[in-house]
Amino acid sequence: SLPKKERDSQTQTIIADIQKKITDAFEVFDHECNKTVDVREIGTIIRSLGCCPSESELHDLLAEVEEEEPTGYIRLEKFLPMMTKVLMERRYRPIPEDILLRAFEVLDENKCGHLTKEELVKYMTEEGEPFTQEEMEEMLSAAVDPETNTVRYRDYITMMVVDEN
Amino acid sequence: MRSHQGELEVSRKSLTIERDLWDQTFFSFMTVKKEFLTFKAAVLIQRWYRRYVARLEMRRRCTWRIFQSIEYSCEQDQIKLHNFFSYLMDHFTPSSSKERDFISRMLTEEESYKDTELEKLCDYESVEVLDSYTGPHLSFPLLPDHATALLEAFKQKQQLHAHYVLKLLHETRRHLMQLPNINHVSTCYSEEITIWEGFAVCPLLTLWHLTYFLFSYVFNGDFVDRGKQSVEILIILFAFLLVYPKEVHLNRGNHEDHMVNLRYGFTKEVMQKYKVHGKKILKMLQNVFCWLPLATLIDQKVLIVHGGVSDMTDLELLAKIQRHKFVSVLRGKKRKGKSRHMDSKVINGESPVGVDPPRSSSFPGSCLQPGLASTASRTELSQWVRQTVEEELEKCRRQVGFSETPGDKELTCVSSVTMTESELESCETSESSQGEWKQIVDLLWSDPMPQEGCKMNTVRGGGCYFGPDVTENILQKHSLQLLIRSHECKQEGYEFCHNRKVLTIFSASNYYEIGSNRGAYVKLGPDLVPHFVQYQANKTAHTLTLRQRISRVEESAFRALREKLFAHTSDLICAFKGYDQEETGTITLSDWATAVESVLHLGLPWRMLRPQLVHSTAGGLLEYKSWLDYLAVEQRSKEHIQSSLLETIYRNRSNLETIFRIIDSDHSGLISFEEFHQTWTLFSSHMNIELTDDGISDLARSIDFNKDGNIDFNEFLEAFRLIEHTHCDDKAALPTSDGC
Q: Is the CB of A79 inside 8 Å of chain B's CB atoms?
């Protein structure tokens, strides 16, 4: 309903804001203050900007921004346009709570409302895109109810979601 | 179990097929096999969890940045405050000899006392140890048993009697006087050398019990102002230094400086623990700190200093300096109280062309001589004065050596006024001591930076930022292979930089907050290869989950950040209004971020921090006035203080505390009416307010709320607020040039 000129200028503003946001996040990891970050931190940056890619999707994104001959560093120059596009297109949206719950329910074969610690470990380290040991330990420390040694996943999800907000 | 590689292949293929459908309901594929479903569920959970962890990591980094930038800006405030006082002293003309004494007492460089004078001053013989004292007794020369007894006593939370503290400090000073500026340590003597910087008592105790002195130790400065047991740590360090002189080596850090201690809490700790004799102890300590060696050299190959180096650092020069001359590194060179003659322009009431509108700052300065106010127009004068104060502070900064250019010929006593002949003379002779002073301040205050070159350390306000090329030059010049330094908190307790030629070691774990960082120390054997030991000295830190640890530290950081934001409320409103041309009362979040950075200059990623600072927005727009009100609500104390003045108090609170302690030179925690009178004359002259003597006396009496003939710190704060209030009213009556 707005004339094209105003719509365009609005889009320009939106893009400019997005780019500032991306640059801020990038700079948090730019330790040498030379507009580069270690390639291993890219995943953290992308995820903290609101995206939720899987490991293989991340892999693809990285391929887009890496140098021809990989240096171990990613330059803001290449990262910015790629990330702007990702955010404008609203790709890799976060997972809604109810979908997450159903994923846990799939793993809960007996439909008893919880997973044992061993079951969770098995699924997370042997299925999908497996966790490292560190990742597994960290998840267990918050997810497992020490009294019953089980993961009451419904409560766990609620707690994590609240914490995020 | 399928191979990891194979799984990835499968997942990639399946995700490529299903990618567009991820956002749809999970169970739209009712015919899929169970294994596939399990697989997809697992990926979903893992994907979600990894994002969660990534966000935590981002929060952790941001929190870190907040703490660092606030800490450094505090240090900067400290230097600014000091420069301001120096400037005040240079320009305030005492109208009586009493005032002159007061000023020189406040800011004169302390001479290093001769032994006999010092013993008279800190006469420990007269400090009686009563029979009722149950703490440890020391006799000199100290034996290993004494040192162990001290450790035990402190573990039992006992306190060492002031008599023994003073004697210990005396002996320590005597020992330190024999040491060169640069300690030389050899790995031939002891198998291993361990290097620490700043620490809590816990790891220290464990260490000693474990090693029984098979090794040598280097303590790289900042023994105090870290936690509430600085006194005990110092005592133990000095005791072990005396018992094992060949094994223990100390370097001076920037906190081994009574001006810094005033701000950072060590002075307070001493006075709290030693109510009667604390003053003597502090005086003695000043003369112990200045005798601490400046650096340690291991096997002529590894240099250990507290801060860093600069492009001017010259080890040969450093070795020759009389280090004890520099009691406080913040002082700069010796300073004499001089009166200044005003520039003729000012006397005639002219103001220079293009005067900027007054910038708000904690202490707008003035350099009026009494009687001048009547000849010049007050408004113009105050405007001109504010501008020149900023320039003067900059000059003062350069004057005390925080300059970029080597061999700076900047004259001392710089101001926009004419100098007398005698002043010029004294400037030339102190140039060499200025160079010496710069050598020391560079060693104790500098930080490494990634870029090449060497520039002023504007964040700390002292020392330099030095680049990899500076490191390389120093190492080559003196045939060294490694520079070990401390001075900066590192999350893992240690960090390499400059091509692994510079190692930062930080031993105080949980420095900002429980869980904020680990501590580390480094061991060197004859091969001079560093080995690290990391720890986190708090049981709680271990039992918390990652999320809990981060949340806790984060809360602390954001509380500090909100305080800082609140303290700049009026500047922020000005900045926000700049983005709200149509006066809607709202701004975009992007503009919010830019505005906040332009006011606070903390270099923080505001857009990443926004969710924690700004909680309610309507359509991406922020109602800034109500946001600032929300900040104010948090800060309001239980006492009845007008909210509009809270801001000033908060911005000045830590500075005012420092000022109070400087004025309260006998550290009694109280200011007498006499001292108050002298102080107030000083403040009123720089703040361009006229008060009669009677007026000040009346003020003093009215401030002494409890009528005990003295003013304590809270009363002092209240007084300052009252004067600011009067000043603000006056300001409101004058026309201002800016739109705020």
A: no
Instruction: Answer for the pair B602, B67: CB distance below 8 angstroms, yes or no.
Output: no
Instruction: Classify B354 as helix, strand or coil.
Output: coil
Interface touch A163/B12, C-beta < 8 Å? no
Contact B218, B251 (CB under 8 A): yes
More confident site: B357 or A94: A94
B15: contact with A, CB 8 A cutoff: yes
Residue A152 DSSP class: -
Partner residue opposite A106 with nearest CB, options B38, B46, B51: B38
pTM of the complete model: 0.55
Chain A residues within 8 A of B49 when measuring between CB atoms: 131, 135, 139
Q: Is the pLDDT of residue B207 over 50?
A: no
User: Annotated catalytic, B255?
Assistant: yes
Report which residue type is found at B235.
Answer: I
- pLDDT, tens digit, 9 for 90 and up, residues B551-571: 767 777 787 788 788 878 888
Alpha-carbon distance B171 to B119, whole Å?
A: 11
Q: Are B671 and B720 in contact (CB under 8 A)?
A: no
Helix, strand and coil in chain A, % to nearest 5: 60, 5, 30
User: Hey, of B10, B15, B46, B608, which one would you mutate to test binding to chain A, going by the most A CBs within 10 A of its CB?
Assistant: B46
First and final C-alpha spacing in chain B = 70
Residue B477 clears pLDDT 90, i.e. is over it:
yes
- Cα A154 to the center of its chain, rounded Å: 21
Is there a contact between A94 and B546 if contact means CB atoms under 8 Å apart?
A: no
Query: Which chain B residue shows the shortest CA-CA distance from A93?
Result: B23
A56, A73, A87: which to substitute to probe chain B, counting the most B Cβ within 10 Å? A56
**pLDDT at residue B702 tops 60:** yes
- How high is the ipTM of this complex? 0.94
Residue B104: its pLDDT value, please?
Answer: 55
CB count within 10 Å of CB A147 equals: 6
Find which of A100-104, B183-187, B189-193 is predicted with most confidence, using mean pLDDT.
Answer: A100-104
Cβ-based neighbour number of residue B481 at 10 Å: 12
Contact yes or no for B606 and A24 at CB 8 A = yes
- Residue B607 touches chain A, beta carbons under 8 Å: yes
State yes or no: pLDDT of B330 exceeds 90: no
Pairing of strands B447-448, B464-466: parallel
- The answer to whether A27 contacts chain B (CB < 8 Å) is yes
**Å from B635 to nearest chain A CA?**
23
Taking alpha carbons only, the member of B145, B105, B176 closest to residue B679 is B105
- Of A60, A64, A84, which is closest to residue A74 (Cα–Cα)? A64
Domains by residue range for chain A, with CATH: 4-88 (1.10.238.10), 97-160 (1.10.238.10)
In this prediction, residues A132-160 reach a mean pLDDT of: 88
Which A residues 85-124 touch B at CB under 8 Å? 93-95, 99-100, 102-104, 106-107, 123-124
**Residues of A whose CB is below 8 A from B48:** 52, 94-95, 100
Of B91, B161, B163, B255, the catalytic one is B255
Burial class (CB in 10 A: 0-12, 13-18, 19+), B76: middle
Helix (H) or strand (E) holding B118: helix B115-121
Residue that is written with structure tokens 């606070």 in the block: B600
How much is the average pLDDT of B77-96? 53
* B172, B242 contact by CB (below 8 A): yes
